[in-house]
Amino acid sequence: MKSAVSPRREEDFPEWYQQVVKVADLAENSDVRGCMVIKPWGYGLWECIQRQLDFLFKETGHKNAYFPLFIPLSYMEKEAGHVEGFAKECAVVTHHRLEAGDDGKLHPAGELSEPLVVRPTSETIIGATYAKWVQSYRDLPILINQWANVVRWEMRPRLFLRTTEFLWQEGHTAHETEQEALEETERMIRVYEAFARDHLALPVIAGEKSESERFPGAVKTFTIEAMVQDRKAIQAGTSHFLGQNFSRASGIRFLSRQGAQELAWTTSWGVSTRLIGTVIMTHADDDGMIIPPRIAPAHVVILPICPKPETRDAVLAAAEALRKRLAALAFHGAPLGVEVDRRDIGGGVKNWDWIKKGAPVRIELGPRDLENGTLAVSRRDRAGKEFLQTDAFVEQAPAILQSIQDALYAKALAWRDEHTRVIDSREDFRAFFTPGNPAKPEIHGGFAKTHWCGARACEERIKNDLKVTIRCIPFDAVQEAGRCVECGEPSGRRVIFAKSY
Amino acid sequence: MKSAVSPRREEDFPEWYQQVVKVADLAENSDVRGCMVIKPWGYGLWECIQRQLDFLFKETGHKNAYFPLFIPLSYMEKEAGHVEGFAKECAVVTHHRLEAGDDGKLHPAGELSEPLVVRPTSETIIGATYAKWVQSYRDLPILINQWANVVRWEMRPRLFLRTTEFLWQEGHTAHETEQEALEETERMIRVYEAFARDHLALPVIAGEKSESERFPGAVKTFTIEAMVQDRKAIQAGTSHFLGQNFSRASGIRFLSRQGAQELAWTTSWGVSTRLIGTVIMTHADDDGMIIPPRIAPAHVVILPICPKPETRDAVLAAAEALRKRLAALAFHGAPLGVEVDRRDIGGGVKNWDWIKKGAPVRIELGPRDLENGTLAVSRRDRAGKEFLQTDAFVEQAPAILQSIQDALYAKALAWRDEHTRVIDSREDFRAFFTPGNPAKPEIHGGFAKTHWCGARACEERIKNDLKVTIRCIPFDAVQEAGRCVECGEPSGRRVIFAKSY
Questions:
Q1: Span B471-489, pLDDT tens digits
Q2: Domain ranges of chain A
Q3: Which CATH architecture has domain A420-498?
Q4: CATH of the domain spanning B13-72+120-283
Q5: Which residues 79-138 of chain B have a CB within 8 Å of chain A?
């Protein structure tokens, strides 16, 4: 079967992914290694994600602010675990001007007395600021989010999933009590979980990271984990309970209700443009991108079909009239996004362009449709097209979009469930994660729900042998007695093991 | 007269400005020299500006995208004028990790083979990308905008007006013909002009820069110039016609309709967080910030006055009910922003907080008001308060906001007109720009509408002697014969001279 994307998913998943990003016109590599150019269609996706998440953050009491791009090198040293986690991937600014050298070329000049690190994340610089803002318990909580770019030097970059520069949001909050900070940490992972489910059509598993997978400097890290179509996991968002580690490092002290000097309890939480990579790997198919309607830059694309020049004006006018009718409708409280592709190229090329870009609904409108008051509707989540009366389509459009949204979620959920196995023996566990196991090829890879004793040694061994890690200890894990799949020691609940991006 | 801000404007304008930024809780200096922290109230202002401008950009056919933060050093050299303009203020990344040295401290490590410049503006990196996207005239125009942070190393930083890192948008377009690119350049300066007038309540003069004040590498630079309360000018936005300079440097070539290889014609245009500084310097007074309603993060602030604990619940409930009624109203197509200040502090302190922050309308609501169905309304642009029936206020709220918006514009316009002088003699010109001129203290400073021969030498001399520059050659300058205020040579139209930020 011919497909628009080559190779197909089962032929070469990583290369298929790159091709989808390309043919869907989402992003491309720049000349700066590891840094991507996010193209208008891809950035439109990010704008939808950003607007909707921003609304959810504000609904939960947060305000946006903006902190410096640069962090003094000495700040990075303040929290031991933190610097260890990020030192290997920091872009460092050492000079503040350029000067022509004897060779006639430009060279860095004006060396800084203290180098500046381009923020890989902002706990330290924001912590230093909060330390100035907080004097008394009356100044708490601080509930702030920042939309920003961050840089983590990446040796093996992959568009959206792992880039040297990426866009994200980072929430940073400070609280009076441990309990409040813990509640905030969980509230925000639940916001991410619901956003992933309802907006991105991603079924994710929310849970806690094991110690070895925690954010550098955190006391607890909560995560949402998605399964994509090669059955690997992607960490799609995290929320960290930082205890008093960063407030100690930054000196966020306050006079408590009891009149004592105390350290604040802080959290941080973030999602990034990686979400776009996760959406692609979850929903796209061998014909290109499939965008969940709720985050689509355009919900409906109208393709005027004008085979003869003399019908062109009438068809374009009808397309514009339809655009206006649709744009007056709402989908989840916002106006329907409608685009008319007026390019003077063949209908087939136009149609394939929008299939590859993953627009949820395509409408073909030709001269004959004008006479009959009809149009041809194609849903990106299904093959084929349906001929409808224009009025009937306009009436149904929001419901069709919701039906696509639901279908994408259901499909992703079925895929995840199909590839999630309860595994109890070491042998089955190793077989599950060993490619090309001839005995059981049908069960290769995915999520293994498995008992784990809690020892770092077992986790390490599994990671070294199989490149498999604990993705999370699910919040909804049932308390049940079992034995660690690696060492056989007792375990009280199952965790999720998987290969991951 | 006691005022909330000390010093007052006429005592020390620069220090008054710093104090307004501080007491209004808009921004503060960070520990990284020249980089500011934009606090929630200040960032809220930026979000309003951003949302409204973004709408105007999309209405004029632009889409957003995102390009890398880093620019290879060699790209900076491609356009001679450009590198000359920016080389002295570039933050340069030279290393990509940190390593502990023998002293136990962290040091930059992993030197890059080619240093990277943190973008001071993105013509060169975007040009390199467009060169790949453009093959034929069918690929044009490209109409893209980017919201981003940029860095220009700043020796004398000043919050919002001149910071090392700032937030901005930069539009970058490529066109088939010179005419189209010129039209785009003018279209966007007109968008800025209208936005400044209708949203920021800033009367600005739109015009063209003289050669010496052009953007480095541009063929023409259009600008909008505002006058603030110390009668200096602020360049509030610019739009550049880049000719084929950057397309030549980046190799943006296309196959024309005639089958020839041609260079594209490009433009770029931007406004930044400097707009916030301009708004402060224009509208704020000796009691703090005054925010034009159209860009206010909250239009109406409700201050519940609860002198006795037993009335607290009832007053808070009434405040919440009022909030809901107001939030259901619209101001220029968006819901009214309403905040209830529930803090358990004295009414006077609360009231002054919001005066200093510049919220357009404050509502005081106490126990007696509940009985009478009344409230006390204070407009930030006027002294005093008015007692109104709640229903009457709700009905009038959008009109009150528009009246504040109009009053701020009218006041700023009157100020500008009062301090704009038609000047024809060299003597008057020099007197106008010489502080403490005992003969004519009343006409010191402002905009001088003056004839200029067009020679760079005259411009230079005036700049050196008086620190005064040509802000722009207004688009609406009348053609009239006159003589250069410096050398007496013939001139065909007046230009605007002023001191500037």
A1: 999 999 999 999 999 999 9
A2: 13-66+123-283, 296-402, 420-498
A3: 2-Layer Sandwich (3.30)
A4: 3.30.930.10
A5: 83, 87-99, 105-106, 108, 110, 115-118, 125, 128-129, 132
* Band of pLDDT at residue A308, cut at 50, 70 and 90: confident
pLDDT average, residue stretch A25-31: 97
**Neighboring chain A residues of B110 at a CB cutoff of 8 Å:** 153
Q: What is the ipTM of this complex?
A: 0.96
Half-sphere exposure of A295 (CA within 13 A, CB side): 30
Sort out which chain B residues have CB atoms less than 8 A from A144's CB and list them.
Answer: 40
Residue A437 pLDDT class (50, 70, 90 cuts): low
Degrees to nearest 5, angle at CA A488 with A483 and A491: 35
Does A73 reach chain B within 8 Å, measured CB to CB?
Answer: yes
d(CA B69, CA B165): 12
Q: What is the mean pLDDT of chain A?
A: 95
DSSP H or E segment with residue B471: strand B469-474
pLDDT at A307: 81
| pLDDT at residue A345 is higher than 60 | yes
The answer to whether the CB of A114 falls within 8 A of the CB of A177 is no
Domain A296-402 fold is: Rossmann fold (3.40.50)
Task: Please report how many Cα atoms fall inside a 13 Å half-sphere around the Cα of residue A37, on the Cβ side.
Answer: 21
**Which one, of B144, B145, B23, B164, lies nearest residue B91 by Cα?**
B164
- For residue A76, give the DSSP letter: H
Alpha-carbon distance of B452 to B488, in angstroms, equals 8
Q: Using CA atoms, how far apart are residues A264 and A59, in angstroms rounded to an integer?
A: 24
**Tell me, what amino acid is at B219?**
V
| Amino acid A441: pLDDT | 57
pLDDT digits (tens, 9 = 90+) for A191-241: 999 999 999 999 999 999 999 999 999 999 999 999 999 999 999 999 999
